[in-house]
Amino acid sequence: MRHNARRPPSVVGRVLDVLGAFTSDRPVLTLSELSRRTGLPLSTTHRLAAELVSRGALQRDGDGQFRVGLWLWEVASLAPHGAQLRESAMPFLEDLYEATHQNVQLAVLDGAEVVYIERLSGRHAVNVISRVGGRLPVHATAVGLVLLAHAPADVQEQVLARPLKRYTGRTIASPEQLRRVLADVRQQGYAVSDGQIELVALSVGAAVHGPDDTVVAAISVVVPAQGTDPFTLVPAVRASARGISRALGAPRTLRLPEDVRRETHQSFH
Amino acid sequence: MRHNARRPPSVVGRVLDVLGAFTSDRPVLTLSELSRRTGLPLSTTHRLAAELVSRGALQRDGDGQFRVGLWLWEVASLAPHGAQLRESAMPFLEDLYEATHQNVQLAVLDGAEVVYIERLSGRHAVNVISRVGGRLPVHATAVGLVLLAHAPADVQEQVLARPLKRYTGRTIASPEQLRRVLADVRQQGYAVSDGQIELVALSVGAAVHGPDDTVVAAISVVVPAQGTDPFTLVPAVRASARGISRALGAPRTLRLPEDVRRETHQSFH
């Protein structure tokens, strides 16, 4: 948990450490696990946890284990993307889902990672490792490439300066390749991630613009890589992204250049 | 904010008060508004808010106003219903959405209120006042009636003992009527809320059972009241609720009695 590195010694910091101790792979923790993960004495952990439970920020199961509570979830649902972005996007995500019956995702940028805000998945959709509230690195996902392509220069340089985690043989592996791909994405107005996270999955992403025309989010469709021509998905994904942008109040003058299909495809192989 | 009534004087309590100061009608607050809503001195509020911002629990806009932060939302997405319930339900909610193109909702019980966990809405769906993360009283909504019908006796008595808020002329107004409706819901395995929140909207709800066969959530479809026969929706809503229950590991032996249409309908008028 990145925040632990700069944990303040204050009570506020300890409260947030207790909340941050819960992760997607460990959403349920015992008191001693909480204590271990936060580095707080058992007695302090017990006192903090009890107070958090009394307020609904945490909840305690019958077996005495702790989970994140409903009250905290309600408060968190007020986060900007949780409210306006998600509400505005949902109908368009629905349309996109009905057109594909695969995975439709909405994501925002946070540092060098994308955070998934919403995902619609069919019962027979290709499995994806992303989950709502989960993160993936920007360089390996279509939404990430779209968001990074439109991110401030300093954010792009941060990512380009770091080692690029390799998920498959098709994951973008060098800063040079990433720079070229980002230029393509900016020129074409969409990104394709073909087997970069899992060889079986392919995703096509496009940018969502806010009222000031800056890119505030990205959407993507994730389909089986086998036998899918990504470019058949591009018009639908771009149309949905534009619809959401319009719903958010983006300038109608927003125009994206035409596809340059052959080039993109090559730039990913 | 119900928790303010019993606010502990501790720092933990103050931190939660700051987070709880944000509401659906006021998701963006200035420092002085935060101070006023929490009853904390401006200096204390400033210190707490700054630390919460430094950890991503809150975020500060360019204009200096505060919102709930992305980090808190990520942590909160680990709440039980956020993870397993929502993931298991989504494909079935999608099917229900495609069958109706209206509003499809997933809700859980919290005291005398329902909390909406998920909602899928078409662009042309009837407007509903509920929102994800929002609450409505149990007696006026189909999901609420389903959840209350299967809630512990003490929870039912709490609700029956309170004044029942009247939204429209069709809102259940007396404890006697509510008792009768809850009995119907238990017998039939579904609930109909016809114009009880807004005269223009009608909803049909059914129960979602967990591994131990207890009712853990409810789903509903909200459609325009005008020209809709609620009973055409009952089979689809019940089938989806059963599908989700099965996905959650509910016993397959779960059987719900046949509809008793005329009786229910009368019990709501």
TrEMBL record, chains A, B:
Highest taxon above the source species: Bacteria
Ranges for domain IclR-ED: 71-250
Ranges where the HTH iclR-type domain occurs: 9-70
Molecular-function GO terms, alphabetical: DNA binding; DNA-binding transcription factor activity
The UniProt record lists the keyword Transcription: yes
Gene3D superfamilies, sorted: 3.30.450.40, Winged helix-like DNA-binding domain superfamily/Winged helix DNA-binding domain
Biological processes, Gene Ontology terms: negative regulation of DNA-templated transcription
Entry annotated with the keyword ATP-binding: no
Name of the protein in question: DNA-binding transcriptional regulator, IclR family
UniProt KW keywords: DNA-binding, Transcription, Transcription regulation
Protein species of origin: Amycolatopsis saalfeldensis
